[in-house]
Amino acid sequence: HQKGEKGPQGKRISLKAAKNSMRVLFNGRRRLELSKMGIAVFPKVLLQLADVEEIDLSRNMIRKIPNIIEKFQNLIWLDLHSNQIDELPPEIGTLRNLTFLNLCNNKLTTKGLPEELTHLKNLRTLNLGLNCLESIPTTLGALKELIELGLFDNSLTIIPKSVKKLPKMERMNVKRNPLPEFAEEEEPIDTIKRLESLYLVEKKDLCESCLLTCQGERDELHKLENMTPVPPEKDLLTNSPF
């Protein structure tokens, strides 16, 4: 293929194109900005620029991160979100300077997370949201510098205690997982108690099943209103924007 021409392997990146994608940030770090380039295979040409501190390969079609990733020993920041990655190589664990790793919106499974991920002792931000994870390794509790952890939109039923108790953790997003703590309470609750946790949201923010649940509960409330005299406080329940 000619340089820049799209083939079965997506777009090939030439050394010149890679060099042209380099940006020097205000803090002096150099970043390769290769987002949305139609890349399907990790460009080996980047080995010639392996001393960069930051790489953005987000929004491409990359399926595999090759073991040559270990050559990028200066990497502090790596953004791979919105690709097709289903597993990481053990060599990812050699990037000891990494503080930011974004793997959101890929196809990662639990098996695809190597144990070596726990060698990234300087990691402060790890985003694993929007993947296919059914569990996360308890060994992630070894990442003592973690401040932010994204686990949203997976199939997690438990968060290991070792992860929950990370000493520096400030933000952990576990939304939209089938975690027991988010399950609906089975036993009936009287309406007075229910008011203790009344959340007002807009329709557009709800997934279909939640919307149906809320609409069902609203209909039940209307039936109750028609059956029993309603005290003046009824507005609190019936003025929700559903």
TrEMBL record:
What SUPFAM superfamilies does the record tag this protein with? L domain-like
Q: State any GO CC term.
A: cytoplasm
Family annotation (InterPro entries):
Leu-rich_rpt, Leu-rich_rpt_4, Leu-rich_rpt_typical-subtyp, LRR_dom_sf, LRR_domain-containing
Residues folding into a coiled coil are: none
Show the Gene3D superfamilies listed in the entry: Ribonuclease Inhibitor
Cross-referenced Pfam families: LRR_4
| Keywords, alphabetical | Leucine-rich repeat, Repeat
Q: What is this protein called?
A: Leucine rich repeat containing 18
Q: Which organism is it from?
A: Zonotrichia albicollis
